[in-house]
């Protein structure tokens, strides 16, 4: 590819994607709304841009083959904040992609689009949406937007319903963990698969306790290698007894399923901010 765009490049997941994506194209344009992201990789440039600004998105996507869209508020938040970055931002990315003739959008969706399903029900990629928050609702919107733009404008999209791409330090993560290596593999497969149309795939590693089913997305060639079971003994020994009446423990969305709408779902998750440094 000549040009690839990565939104959300300043984020934790973006920090792990920048180098491998820069090796897949002649030019990687990383973008976020911070002033800069520090040292750049050899084929990488950085552009500060607001997802809520359609003209800015058109400028960033001009001449690109594909966009890997990881930019958004990565937590539950007040409606107006989710609306600007996660909903209007998604529309602007797809509309700019259509106007600039991009072939495909690779989108960081989330388990929170279906977060209210119980973990005792193994769900596939075709279950109806069941969001757990405004954040999850925005992911539902973007998935439906991708379907619409495929049907009406012929733009392919791969929607990566990421479960939990963070260190394994709680019982839920034993089934939901997505390692950084598997994340990179997942995104690479979403980019290089010859034909995708519109599709959804769960972003999760090869965990023994996984609660979702990717068999309908097998054509993407995503074959995760890592397994959170290596952490099970230590994590379970340190955990409080499970409460079967707590939606945060019973539902796919974890703490997002139990918080009040508009309030942080990550506040109680003890996520380690281990961004990759160049």
Characterise this structure.
The structure is a single chain. With 278 residues, the chain is α/β, with parallel strands linked by helices. It has one domain (3-257): Rossmann fold (3-Layer(aba) Sandwich), CATH 3.40.50.720. The chain is 32% helix and 14% strand. It has eight helices and seven strands. The chain has helices at residues 12-22, 54-61, 79-99, 134-153, 173-176, 180-192, 232-238, 247-250, and strands at residues 3-7, 27-32, 44-48, 66-69, 104-110, 156-162, 198-203. A seven-stranded parallel sheet has the order 3-2-1-4-5-6-7, sandwiched between helices. α3 (79-99) runs parallel beside α4. The longest helix has 21 residues, at 79-99. The chain is globular and about 55 Å long. It comes from Planktomarina temperata RCA23. Belongs to the NAD(P)-dependent epimerase/dehydratase family. One of its GO terms (molecular function) is oxidoreductase activity.
In short:
Belongs to the NAD(P)-dependent epimerase/dehydratase family. With 278 residues, the chain is an alpha/beta fold. The chain is 32% helix and 14% strand.
For the structure shown, list the relevant keywords.
globular, Rossmann fold, alpha/beta, 7 strands
Query: What is the general shape?
Result: globular
Oligomeric form of this entry?
single chain
Low-confidence runs = none
Instruction: Provide a count of the helices.
Output: 8
CATH topology: Rossmann fold
Q: What percent of residues are in strands?
A: 5-15%
Q: Profile the largest sheet.
A: 7 strands, parallel
Which strand order do you get reading across the main beta sheet?
A: 3-2-1-4-5-6-7
CATH homology superfamily:
NAD(P)-binding Rossmann-like Domain
How widely separated are the two ends?
A: 24 Å
Helix content: 25-40%
Mean pLDDT, as a whole number? 97
Round the Cα radius of gyration to an integer and report it.
18 Å
What's the number of extended β-strand segments?
7
- SSE series: EHEEHEHEHEHHEHH
Structural class: alpha/beta
Using the coordinates above, name the CATH class.
Alpha Beta
**Number of separate domains:** 1
Question: In CATH terms, what is the architecture?
Answer: 3-Layer(aba) Sandwich
């Amino acid at each position: 590819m000549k040009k690839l765009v990565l939104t959300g490049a300043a984020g934790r997941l973006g920090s792990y994607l920048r180098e491998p994506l820069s090796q897949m194209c002649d030019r990687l344009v990383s973008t976020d709304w911070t002033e800069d992201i520090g040292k750049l990789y050899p084929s990488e440039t950085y552009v500060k841009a607001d997802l809520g600004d359609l003209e800015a998105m058109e400028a960033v996507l001009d001449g690109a083959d594909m966009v890997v869209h990881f930019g958004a508020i990565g937590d539950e938040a007040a409606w107006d904040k989710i609306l600007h970055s996660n909903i209007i931002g998604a529309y602007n990315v797809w509309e700019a992609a259509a106007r600039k003739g991009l072939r495909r959008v690779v989108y960081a969706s989330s388990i929170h689009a279906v977060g209210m399903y119980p973990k005792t029900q193994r769900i596939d990629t075709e279950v109806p949406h069941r969001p757990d928050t405004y954040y999850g609702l925005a992911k539902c919107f973007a998935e439906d937007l991708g379907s619409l733009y495929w049907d009406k404008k012929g733009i392919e999209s791969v929607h990566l319903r990421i479960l939990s791409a963070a260190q394994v330090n709680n019982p839920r993560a034993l089934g939901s963990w997505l390692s950084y290596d598997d994340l990179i593999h997942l995104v690479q497969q979403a980019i290089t698969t010859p034909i995708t149309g519109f599709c959804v795939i769960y972003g999760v590693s090869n965990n023994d306790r996984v609660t979702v089913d990717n068999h309908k997305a097998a054509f993407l060639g995503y074959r995760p290698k890592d397994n959170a079971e290596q952490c099970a003994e230590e994590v379970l020994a340190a955990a409080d007894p499970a409460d079967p009446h707590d939606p945060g423990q019973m539902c796919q969305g974890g703490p997002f399923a139990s918080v009040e709408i508009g309030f942080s779902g990550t506040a109680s998750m003890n996520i380690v901010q281990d961004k990759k440094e160049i």
